[in-house]
Amino acid sequence: MKVLVLNAGSSSQKSCLYDLPEGAFPETAAEPIWEAMVDWGIHPDYGQLTVTAQGTEHEIRLSRDTPNHGLEEMLATLVQGETPVLGALTEISIVGHRVVHGGDRYCQATLIDEAVKQTIEELIPLAPNHNPAHLEEILGVEAVLGDVPQVAVFDTAFHTSIPAAAATYPIPYDWFEKGIRRYGFHGISHRYCAQQAATLVGKPLESLRMITAHLGNGCSLTAVRGGESVNTTMGFTPLEGLMMGTRSGSIDPAIPLYLMTQMGVEASEVDRLLNKQSGLKGIFGPSGDLREILQAREGGDERARLAFEMYVLRLQGAIAALIPQLGGLDVLAFTAGVGENSAAVRSATCAGFEFLGLELDESKNQGSAKNSRISTANSGVAVVVVHAQEDWAIARECWQLARCP
């Protein structure tokens, strides 16, 4: 079964093709047989399509007026040019899309029909940087591949189980009835991380009280109990919660009002500052890349030191805030770019939870820690590192729906 996974962003599009068996789903993640990336931010005059398949990497320049943002050209590389892996596009059995916002209407992966497309369109005001790209991509696949089944895998779906007390903001209740509530994001990653973490500790997911930490440029935590999300740090938008690469995370809500009413900053500029110029970048200055910050901190840069300390302090505080709702903590799981690769972040974060009996094995933490347990055998909390495999998780959802639509 050939499963195409498409992950559209506001200025880029990642894609991969898996060749999956018709029988049992593989226990371990398979490598895609083809990968592609379209990046419209690399140059003002053109987009760059980079395709990798069969050990070959090929780059193609795309005109700015290319229809469907290069989707047709990208799919053509599956059957022709330098990287063919299919005899014909009709070999594609099903297409899966990561969709950032599904509101509270979808709790699982869903075959796309007119109602689903309408919902994605209606939710554009809540995800203006992503949902338009998802919808355009879905329509583009229809134009190129015809009536091939398409699946929406929503980032918000895992969090539809959050109870009302956690989902509702302490503002006039009629705002909640109008859709202003905690939705949560990174749900595909959090669900996959929780499942893999349970496997690593050798216990049923439903028996564990777990916090999953998706730490990349965007960062969020999810409290998982009984295999379900019961709370998460991102909220109405992905801006809420932890300090991130370029996003502020939670701040006093009066600050944007003050900037607009007292300092004359336009609302659009406030939005840009909080999403693109804050977080680690806002404090450190040169960038929001934690690798650069750690290197600068080693060199004695005070703002790098401050940025790191703030990042860890807010991360620890958010973890601690979720524990009472879980009634304790059995597993802390780190995933995504920072979570998987920064031993310094894991070590500093876990040091704040020694009172829970958490003991980190620093030799394991400093080593190649992906898909492994890095706490000691006697630790009161199991700490694991899970390699993020969002595309694989989407492919699994497609495989299941293709077999049992």
From TrEMBL:
Tagged with keyword Magnesium: yes
Active site (record annotation): 155 (proton donor/acceptor)
Cofactor: Mg(2+); Mn(2+)
Catalysed reaction equations from the record: acetate + ATP = acetyl phosphate + ADP
Binding site for ATP: 14, 214-218, 289-291, 337-341
Subcellular location: Cytoplasm
Chief location bin: cytoplasm
Positions bearing the site annotation: Transition state stabilizer: 186, 247
UniProt-recorded Gene Ontology molecular function terms: kinase activity
Chain residues that bind substrate: 98
Cofactor note: Mg(2+). Can also accept Mn(2+).
Keywords for the protein's UniProt record, in alphabetical order: ATP-binding, Cytoplasm, Kinase, Magnesium, Metal-binding, Nucleotide-binding, Transferase
Family to which this protein belongs: Belongs to the acetokinase family.
This protein's name: Acetate kinase
